[in-house]
Amino acid sequence: MNINDYGFLRVAAASPKLKVADCDHNTEEIKRVIKQAQQEDVQILCFPELCLTAYSCGDLFFQKALQQKALESLSKLVRFLEERPSIITIVGLPLHIKNNLYNVAAVLSGEGILGFVPKTYVPNNNEYYEKRWFTSGNDLTDLTVNIESDKFDLTVDSESSKVPISSKGLIFHTSFGNFGIEICEDLWMPVPPSSALAMQGADLIFNLSASNELVGKNRYRKSLVRQQSGRCNAAYIYASAGWHESTTDMVFSGACLIAENGTLLAESERFSPVSELIIADIDIEALRHDRLKNTNYTSMTSSSETTGIDCYIDFVTPDKMYRSFNPHPFIPSKETRDESLSEVFNIQTHGLAKRLLHTGMEKATIGISGGLDSTLALLVTVKAFDLLGLPRENIHGITMPGFGTTARTYGNAVALMRSLGVTVKEIPIVDAVTQHFKDIGHDADNHDVTYENSQARERTQILMDYANKIGGLVVGTGNMSELALGWATYNGDHMSMYGVNTSVPKTLVATLVRWIADTRTNEEASGNILHDILDTPFSPELLPAGKDGGIAQKTEHFVGPYELHDFFLHRMLRYGDSPSRIRFMAEQAFAGQYPAQEIVKWLKLFYRRFFAQQFKRSCMPDGPKVGSVNLSPRADWRMPSDASADSWLAELE
After folding, report:
1. What does residue 10 show for φ and ψ, rounded to 5 degrees?
2. Which residues contact 504 (CB under 8 A, 6 or more apart)?
3. pLDDT tens profile 38-80
4. Which of 142, 324, 492, 584 could hold 457 in an S-S bridge, CB 3.0 to 4.6 Å?
5. Around Cβ 358, how many Cβ atoms within 10 Å?
6. CB neighbours (10 Å) of residue 652?
7. How far apart are CA 478 and CA 372, in angstroms?
8. Comparing C-alpha atoms, which of 293, 281, 310, 327 is closest to residue 6?
9. 184 has catalytic annotation
10. Rg, the chain, Cα only
């Protein structure tokens, strides 16, 4: 697999085992790590600040012998990389330019030295006193260094032998992504250089660092890296000096971090006795999609202040991905599950409570089928009434058994309503629908779409008219996955006066109900009912039950697994992914669970239904947005009902 074709770029951060002021040893160790990274198909590799000499050399930085040795080491690395054109390497060294010494990052590849980036913010407080040796590179812009000169004279010459050096607007362009560089303290400042670099088009930010360890500092450092990657809609690759640095006054740990858009993808072992290397595959396409949607993401500076440098790296075809794909992106992680699910439930309940307050209604009707969606909607409604101090008896739960209703779902519906203390109302629909069939001349033995939709619309008519009768509000139960697939009857279960589940996908509906059953129910009986509902197959129960009295019409048999569709929906709407990218990631996420041909089968169905059913979403009722993906035509998703899916389906072919 060519991961670059699917929008990914493989990067790494390394903290090599160094010796202070021993450039020869350090260079050999850096070479060894480069070889290791190349074996793993790394395309861009970042080392720590001043790694050629080690960071903690002190006044030895003034010694010309050390400065020259660092340049010799740089030259050795360039020759070493000439035989390895598939990897770009970023190293740190002291660079003497005219009367000043600069702490710089050097970008190297098989093409040679591509550019230098000097450190902008030079710390000179507490345990740091870098200004004793180094000058800020803030004034080094649009200049070049003559790499053939012994003195490395600063000049504005633009000959091919000159290497650009700039602290502002230096962007390195590859075929698969653009990157910028900042050094250590730059990240910790109120306006890091990486913010401007991101606005100028850098997808990745590399930070060469030498961050010592203090109690609590690691947590704060990780927070900075995550937040800056999120603020910049970028990947942030951070490489820090290891514990082989001098411990005269400070101890370093070799903290290496890779974050993408606020999420930590990889982290090194701190205080490792050996060289550390962490690798991650960055989703460049997803980062660019977020920037595309953010209309404020325009360049802060003029193009004249940006210098672009073209870099060559070859594509890679690794055997494995250094990245996992969450098969259930709508379900919170275990670490944040309780907090996140509580937030979703609160958004749903407070949204409904506000609507009740605004309309002045103190009663509600809700259709209870014994399935997951109506169960969650009822739990939300009960909580909303409790918040408003309204009696639960004002909630009129209506069960409407029809041709396909089974004893299990009917029993669970009635038991759930009674356990929650709401008003229970049973209105069978068989006679009314049978009369309707006679009125429109439909054969009741013909179990077609008319047979199914007539039942759904009869139930909606009952809910609406009963709500009018009691002066109440109809609470909708349909979920976002059904809206995406159009698995709802137009002007049937598609319609309500307020839909509390409209932005909650099916996988999250199940997770929420299980969470409530396990943590939010006081009575064991209620918990048992909820767990039995969770174990019930998804079904609209519009076709007659089987001979054994069980559910004959199972939704996932017709439309496919909801976990697949929720994955497709998340990737398409959240990241704007193409069909081929979604297929590629689904095959990774569901490896061993669904064969590739089955994934393609359901992905094709997803696109066909998603495009064909937009007309139902264009007039969907109000409902609260709970996550980053939403199908409301008044919020996140505006699509013409007549759009064609042909281009999407053709790509899958």
Report:
1. -95, 125
2. 344, 348, 376, 479, 480, 512, 626
3. 999 999 999 999 999 999 999 999 999 999 999 999 999 999 9
4. 492
5. 8
6. 15
7. 10
8. 281
9. yes
10. 31
Lowest mean pLDDT among 123-132, 179-188, 488-497: 123-132
Spell out the residues 6+ positions from residue 378 whose beta carbon is closer than 8 angstroms to its own: 366, 368, 395, 397, 416, 417, 420, 422
Among 426, 489, 417, residue whose Cα is nearest residue 453 = 489
Amino acid in position 501? N
Residue 473 CA to its chain's centroid (Å): 36
Q: What is the CATH number of domain 3-310?
A: 3.60.110.10
Indicate which residue of 23, 29, 46, 49 is catalytic: 49
User: What phi and psi, each to the nearest 5 degrees, are found at residue 625?
Assistant: -80, 130
Tens digit of each residue's pLDDT (9 = 90 or more) over 200-241: 999 999 999 998 888 988 999 999 999 999 999 999 999 999
Flag whether pLDDT at 160 surpasses 80. Answer: no
Helix (H) or strand (E) holding 88: strand 88-97
506 in active site: no
Q: What secondary structure letter does DSSP report for 549? A: S
Where do you find CATH 3.40.50.620 in the chain?
337-558
pLDDT digit string, tens, across residues 266-293: 999 999 989 999 999 999 999 999 999 8
User: Which residue do the tokens 């098969």 mark?
Assistant: 327
Q: Looking at the chain, which residues constitute the CATH 3.60.110.10 domain(s)?
A: 3-310
Distance CA 36, CA 14 (A): 11
Catalytic, 267? Answer: no
Contact 34, 82 (CB under 8 A): no
CB atoms within 10 A of CB 248: 9
Which CA distances in Å does 625 have to 136, 358, 383, 499, 621? 47, 18, 18, 10, 12
List the CATH code of the domain at 337-558: 3.40.50.620
Report CA dihedral (215, 217, 220, 222) to the nearest 10 degrees: -120
Q: Binning pLDDT at 50, 70 and 90, where does residue 167 land?
A: confident
